[in-house]
From TrEMBL:
It comes from the Bacteria. Gene3D superfamilies: FAD/NAD(P)-binding domain. This is Lycopene cyclase family protein.
Length: 408
């Protein structure tokens, strides 16, 4: 991998605008495919050397990223409503944690020997078509053109269309270190709903790295953000009152906002431009989970590219499927919309909904459900364990709205 220093007229086969999770994952899968010799430019505003995110997910099978998994567990604590508090085995799954710094280093190492892949540290100003109808990326250092495709993870929707359900997953986490051993590193807390809900969906998760170190993160599903001091106060209160820890040091801080929306996402805004990651609608609308989903979608995308030998103009069938969101099943999207409406309209306590899901079903089955791997019959069985009336109300609203928007 080299640093881009070419002139403004430089042309690449593929340009990846944004070198985060989706952009670097795509570069990795391309480098492992039959398109490994394609000329690729990755553009990002930073070198991606710091740990700025933590990704948690579950898997039943080993993957290429297993060597950088910081921690993995075979069960999780769940503290919910109606005094339900249990350590839940997750059977065939493993709950895994990857630190973004390790992920970035892994990708760079994998593609560093590829002279055909260049990395440019610069800000993306726009992704558009030039006067010859070719895709290009404008940066502060110039204009870079793609002979085939620009993959754009920077042009995120504002998600402000009031005709759809719009929520946010916002969070702040501290990696804390204590003097005395206080954490059981074999037992993470995935959901702790014991915090005050304030008519929202609020929970804390605790992911231990060692007996003296853990990530403690406060998370909210709502339609509005809070003052930064509120997250700090909640974390301080949880650590002192729930974890009974008074002497600790904050080693790292992470915070973020993830859209939870059923607003349609345009994956191909123009010929030769394909949106990926959050910009491409890869985030699961009802939960905000994205790591596993992003890998699945990008693997499918690269397989399509291989069949077309990388030529954007040669595979009409695949392009149509991208536009229609084939990789996101319509039935699953409907379930997401219904749950979003239930939470947004506060038709029933989110705390109780998640408690019912995990207490009345096999936990591994819920993880399979959240990964969209369950069948229709399995989905219906799971939905039977949540409050029927609130979900029927939301189902009626969502289906009516979708029909109305379609007819328009």
């Amino acid at each position: 991998m080299s640093t881009a220093s070419e002139s403004y007229s430089s042309t690449y086969d593929f340009i990846i605008a944004g070198g985060g999770l989706a952009g670097l994952s795509l570069a990795y899968y391309l480098s492992q495919s039959s398109l490994e010799n394609a000329k690729i430019l990755i553009i990002d505003q930073s070198e991606k050397k710091e740990n700025d995110k933590t990704w948690c997910f579950w898997e039943a099978q080993p993957t290429a990223f297993d060597e950088i998994v910081r921690q993995k567990w075979n069960g999780v604590w769940f503290h919910g409503s109606r005094n339900f508090s249990q350590f839940l085995p997750i059977d065939e799954y493993r709950y895994k944690l990857i630190r973004s710094a390790d992920f970035y280093q892994f990708i760079y190492k994998a593609i560093s020997r590829k002279d055909n892949i260049s990395f440019l540290i610069d800000s993306v100003l726009s992704v558009e078509k030039d006067i010859d109808n070719r895709p290009q990326v404008k940066t502060t250092q110039g204009i870079f053109k793609a002979s085939q495709i620009v993959f754009d993870s920077t042009s995120r929707s504002s998600y402000d269309d009031t005709r759809y359900s719009q929520m946010l997953q916002h969070f702040k986490g501290w990696v804390i270190e204590t003097v005395a051993p206080v954490f059981d590193e074999t037992k993470p807390t995935m959901f702790d709903f014991s915090v005050e809900q304030n008519d929202e969906c609020r929970f804390v998760y605790v992911l231990p790295y060692s007996p003296t170190k853990a990530l403690v993160e406060f998370t909210i599903f709502s339609d509005n953000l809070l003052e930064d001091s509120v997250y700090d106060d909640e974390l301080k209160s949880y650590i002192s009152q729930r974890l009974k820890i008074t002497n600790y040091r904050i080693d790292e801080i992470e915070k973020g906002t993830i859209p939870m929306s059923d607003e349609p996402c345009i994956q191909i805004p123009d010929d030769g431009i394909v949106r990926i990651g959050t910009a491409g609608g890869y985030v699961k609308a009802s939960t905000g989970y994205s790591f596993t989903r992003t890998q699945r979608i990008l693997k499918n995308l690269v397989r399509d590219l291989e069949r077309a030998k990388g030529n954007f103009d040669s595979f009409e069938k695949e392009k149509k499927s991208w536009r229609k969101g084939k990789y996101i099943p319509n039935w699953k999207a409907l379930l997401d919309s219904i749950l979003l409406d239930v939470m947004l309209k506060n038709r029933h306590s989110s705390k109780d909904i998640f408690t019912r899901l995990f207490s009345k079903n096999r936990p591994a089955q819920i993880l399979k459900f959240l990964d969209e791997d369950t069948s229709l019959l399995e989905d219906l069985a799971i939905m039977h364990t949540v409050p029927i009336i609130p979900f029927l109300k939301s189902a009626f609203v969502v289906i009516f709205r979708k029909i109305w928007l379609f007819l328009r």
